[in-house]
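Structure first, sequence second, as always.
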Protein backbone atom coordinates (compact mmCIF):
# COMPACT_ATOMS: atom_id res chain seq x y z
CA UNK A 1 0.00 0.00 0.00
CA UNK A 2 1.86 3.08 1.20
CA UNK A 3 4.04 4.17 4.08
CA UNK A 4 1.90 6.86 5.66
CA UNK A 5 0.21 6.76 9.07
CA UNK A 6 -3.39 5.57 9.08
CA UNK A 7 -5.82 5.03 11.90
CA UNK A 8 -8.43 2.43 12.54
CA UNK A 9 -11.16 1.64 15.00
CA UNK A 10 -11.46 -2.03 15.99
CA UNK A 11 -14.43 -3.49 17.80
CA UNK A 12 -14.66 -7.16 18.79
CA UNK A 13 -18.12 -8.59 19.42
CA UNK A 14 -17.88 -12.20 20.66
CA UNK A 15 -20.89 -14.35 19.76
CA UNK A 16 -20.26 -17.03 22.37
CA UNK A 17 -21.43 -17.69 25.89
CA UNK A 18 -18.58 -19.91 27.12
CA UNK A 19 -16.90 -16.89 28.76
CA UNK A 20 -18.02 -13.39 29.56
CA UNK A 21 -17.64 -11.33 26.36
CA UNK A 22 -15.31 -8.88 28.12
CA UNK A 23 -12.79 -11.68 28.65
CA UNK A 24 -12.52 -12.19 24.89
CA UNK A 25 -12.34 -8.41 24.33
CA UNK A 26 -9.57 -8.17 26.96
CA UNK A 27 -7.63 -10.82 25.03
CA UNK A 28 -7.89 -8.72 21.86
CA UNK A 29 -6.78 -5.57 23.69
CA UNK A 30 -3.77 -7.44 25.10
CA UNK A 31 -2.62 -8.26 21.57
CA UNK A 32 -2.95 -4.60 20.59
CA UNK A 33 -0.99 -3.54 23.68
CA UNK A 34 1.79 -6.03 22.96
CA UNK A 35 2.08 -4.87 19.34
CA UNK A 36 3.79 -1.61 20.23
CA UNK A 37 1.42 0.33 17.98
CA UNK A 38 -0.25 3.49 19.31
CA UNK A 39 -3.71 2.76 20.69
CA UNK A 40 -6.52 4.16 22.80
CA UNK A 41 -9.08 1.87 24.40
CA UNK A 42 -12.62 3.22 24.37
CA UNK A 43 -15.90 1.87 25.75
CA UNK A 44 -17.05 0.56 22.36
CA UNK A 45 -13.87 0.17 20.31
CA UNK A 46 -10.12 0.56 20.39
CA UNK A 47 -8.46 3.08 18.07
CA UNK A 48 -5.06 2.16 16.67
CA UNK A 49 -2.66 4.28 14.67
CA UNK A 50 0.48 3.53 12.71
CA UNK A 51 1.85 2.69 9.30
CA UNK A 52 -0.66 0.87 7.10
CA UNK A 53 1.14 -2.48 7.22
CA UNK A 54 1.52 -2.34 11.02
CA UNK A 55 -2.17 -1.57 11.51
CA UNK A 56 -3.20 -4.43 9.23
CA UNK A 57 -0.81 -6.81 11.04
CA UNK A 58 -2.43 -5.94 14.38
CA UNK A 59 -5.90 -6.60 12.97
CA UNK A 60 -4.72 -9.99 11.68
CA UNK A 61 -2.96 -10.78 14.98
CA UNK A 62 -6.15 -10.13 16.96
CA UNK A 63 -8.11 -12.53 14.76
CA UNK A 64 -5.42 -15.19 14.89
CA UNK A 65 -5.14 -14.91 18.67
CA UNK A 66 -8.89 -15.30 19.21
CA UNK A 67 -8.90 -18.26 16.85
CA UNK A 68 -5.96 -19.92 18.63
CA UNK A 69 -7.67 -19.45 22.02
CA UNK A 70 -10.76 -21.21 20.72
CA UNK A 71 -13.23 -18.34 20.45
CA UNK A 72 -15.93 -20.02 18.37
CA UNK A 73 -17.32 -16.92 16.70
CA UNK A 74 -16.92 -13.15 16.73
CA UNK A 75 -17.73 -10.08 14.71
CA UNK A 76 -14.92 -7.63 14.07
CA UNK A 77 -16.03 -4.14 13.09
CA UNK A 78 -13.24 -2.11 11.55
CA UNK A 79 -13.16 1.48 10.41
CA UNK A 80 -9.98 2.40 8.57
CA UNK A 81 -9.06 5.88 7.37
CA UNK A 82 -6.34 6.22 4.75
CA UNK A 83 -4.94 9.23 2.92
CA UNK A 84 -3.11 8.54 -0.30
CA UNK A 85 -0.37 11.13 0.01
CA UNK A 86 0.12 11.98 3.70
CA UNK A 87 -0.44 10.85 7.28
CA UNK A 88 -3.86 10.90 8.91
CA UNK A 89 -3.87 10.93 12.70
CA UNK A 90 -6.57 10.71 15.31
CA UNK A 91 -5.22 13.79 17.04
CA UNK A 92 -5.72 15.79 13.86
CA UNK A 93 -9.40 14.87 13.92
CA UNK A 94 -10.08 15.61 17.59
CA UNK A 95 -7.56 18.28 18.57
CA UNK A 96 -10.01 21.16 18.19
CA UNK A 97 -12.29 19.55 20.78
CA UNK A 98 -9.65 19.01 23.44
CA UNK A 99 -9.22 21.57 26.18
Amino acid sequence: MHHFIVNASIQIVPIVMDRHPYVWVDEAIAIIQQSGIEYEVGPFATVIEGKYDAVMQVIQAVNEHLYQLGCAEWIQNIQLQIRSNTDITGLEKIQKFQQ
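Margin note: Strands lie at 5-14, 38-41, 46-51, 74-81.
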